[in-house]
Design brief:
- The chain is α+β, with helices and mostly antiparallel strands and about 375 residues long.
- The protein is built from 14 helices and 9 strands.
- The chain has a 4-stranded antiparallel sheet with strand order 1-2-3-4, with helices on one face.
- Helix 7 crosses helix 11.
- It starts with a strand and ends with a helix.
- The N terminus is likely disordered.
C-alpha cells in the first residue's frame, strides 16, 4: 500500500493524515482515499475520511485544503475558505438569508475565484471580476439591475471582511476598488391611489386575489407576511392585525418563519372598511380553522395576477414589493411622519426618511420665508 502519513499540530490539535489507494475486497482500486485521525481542542479523538478521488493529486489537494482549514491558513484555496465562511455564519442568520447568500456565491463568485488562493486575490482580480459582471447580458440584451449588482458586490466584500476579522487576512482586496451597482434603485415605482383603484376593480373577479391585494395596499405589509396570515392574526372587534410570522419557500419547502426584523413584529390598526371586507372573506372560506393560512397560493400566483390586472386596468406594471412603496407613498400624501409610517410598516424611521424623502414636500422655501420675516421684524425694530 502506497501511503503518505503526515503529523501536524493545529492550534493544540495533533493530526495524522494519510493519502493512499482505496481498498476494495482486498485489492487496490482505481481511486484514492484520504484519512485523518486527530485530537481536537477538547481532547476528543476524531476521524475524518474522504474517498473516491480519481487521482492521487486530487486526493493530496483535498488533504492540503483540509490542513489549511484546520490551521486557519490564509493560503488555503478560496473555495475552502467559502466553506468555512458559510459554516461560521449559518447558525447566526435566517435560513432564507443563508440560502440567498449561498446562491449568490455559487452563481456569481465561486466560478471566478474558485481556483485562486485566498491570500493571492488582489484588487486587480476584483476589478476584472466586476467588469465581467457588468458585461453579462440576458437573451434580451439586458444586464443585471444596479441594486442586484450591489448585492453581489456586498457578498464578496462580506467574505473578505470575515477573513480579515477572524482569519488574519492582512486586508480586504475589495477595499481598494469602487463598488459596482447602487444600494437603492434610481427610480422608485409605485401606484397612486387612483391607479390602485383601477387595478383593484379588475381583479375582483378572483376574490382571494382581490382581498390579498387590499391587505397589501392598505396595510403596507410584506408579501411573506401576507402569505403567513391566519384568521387568529385578526381582531376584527379591535380592528387590528398582528404581524408575527413570515411565509417562505426554501429549496422547494414551504416554511413559516419569524418576521424579517425585530421591528417587523407589530400590531397594525385596520380601517373599518378593510375589517368588513375581511369578515366577508372569512365567511367565504370553507372549513378553515383559525390557525391555518387564509391565502394558500404562492408569490408566483400574485406575480401573475399583477401581470393580468395591470394589463387589464391599463396601469403601469410595478413589482409586488412596490405595493409596499405605494402604501408608504399614500401615507406620506396623507401627512404622516417617517416615525409614524415606520411603526406601521415595521421599518426603521431613518430608512423611511432616506428612501422616501423625495416624496415629502420641501420645507426649504418655507424656511427661507420665515427667516426673511424674522430679519424684517428685527429691521423694523
Amino acid at each position: 500500500m502506497r501511503q503518505r502519513l503526515i503529523t501536524i499540530c493545529v492550534m493544540g490539535e495533533k493530526t495524522n493524515m494519510a493519502v493512499y489507494r482505496d481498498k476494495s475486497n482486498g485489492y487496490d482500486s482505481k481511486t484514492w482515499r484520504v484519512a485523518v485521525y486527530y485530537t481536537d481542542w477538547q481532547g476528543n479523538k476524531k476521524k475524518h475520511e474522504k474517498r473516491g478521488f480519481k487521482t492521487k493529486k486530487s486526493a493530496q489537494s483535498y488533504e492540503t485544503e483540509f490542513i489549511a482549514k484546520k490551521k486557519k491558513d490564509i493560503n488555503m484555496g478560496f473555495s475552502a475558505f467559502v466553506e468555512l465562511y458559510l459554516t461560521d455564519i449559518k447558525p447566526q442568520i435566517k435560513l432564507t438569508t443563508y440560502v440567498t447568500k449561498e446562491n449568490i456565491i455559487n452563481t456569481h463568485i465561486l466560478p471566478y475565484f474558485e481556483n485562486k488562493s485566498l491570500s493571492d486575490i488582489t484588487s486587480v482580480d476584483i476589478l476584472q471580476w466586476q467588469n465581467e459582471l457588468l458585461m453579462l447580458r440576458d437573451d434580451n440584451g439586458k444586464g443585471y439591475s444596479q441594486t442586484y449588482l450591489r448585492t453581489v458586490q456586498n457578498q464578496l466584500n462580506a467574505i473578505f471582511n470575515h477573513a480579515v476579522r477572524y482569519y488574519d487576512l492582512p486586508k480586504n482586496p475589495c477595499a481598494a476598488t469602487k463598488k459596482i451597482g447602487k444600494s437603492k434603485a434610481k427610480e422608485m415605482l409605485f401606484w397612486t391611489k387612483e391607479e390602485y383603484w383601477k387595478f383593484a376593480e379588475v381583479v375582483k373577479d378572483k376574490p382571494a386575489s382581490y382581498y390579498a391585494f387590499q391587505i397589501l395596499y392598505w396595510t403596507g405589509i410584506r408579501c411573506g407576511e401576507l402569505l403567513a396570515l391566519t384568521i387568529s392574526d385578526f381582531d376584527l372587534q379591535k380592528k387590528t392585525l398582528h404581524i408575527d410570522k413570515n411565509y417562505q419557500v426554501v429549496k422547494g419547502e414551504e416554511m413559516i418563519t419569524t418576521p424579517k426584523t425585530e421591528k417587523s413584529n407589530r400590531i397594525i390598526d385596520l380601517p373599518e372598511f378593510l375589517c368588513n371586507e375581511m369578515e366577508d372573506y372569512f365567511s367565504s372560506l370553507y372549513k378553515v380553522d383559525e390557525n391555518s393560512r387564509i391565502f394558500t397560493f404562492t408569490k408566483s400566483f400574485l406575480h401573475h395576477e399583477m401581470d393580468r390586472g395591470s394589463a387589464k386596468a391599463g396601469v403601469k406594471r410595478i413589482r409586488l414589493h412596490d405595493l409596499r412603496h405605494s402604501s408608504c407613498a399614500l401615507l406620506i400624501e396623507l401627512g404622516y411622519s417617517p416615525i409614524q409610517i415606520a411603526e406601521r410598516l415595521g421599518h426603521e424611521s431613518v430608512t423611511i426618511t432616506e428612501r422616501y424623502s423625495h416624496l415629502y414636500p420641501s420645507v426649504q422655501k418655507q424656511m427661507a420665508d420665515k427667516l426673511n420675516k424674522a430679519f424684517e421684524e428685527n429691521d423694523d425694530g
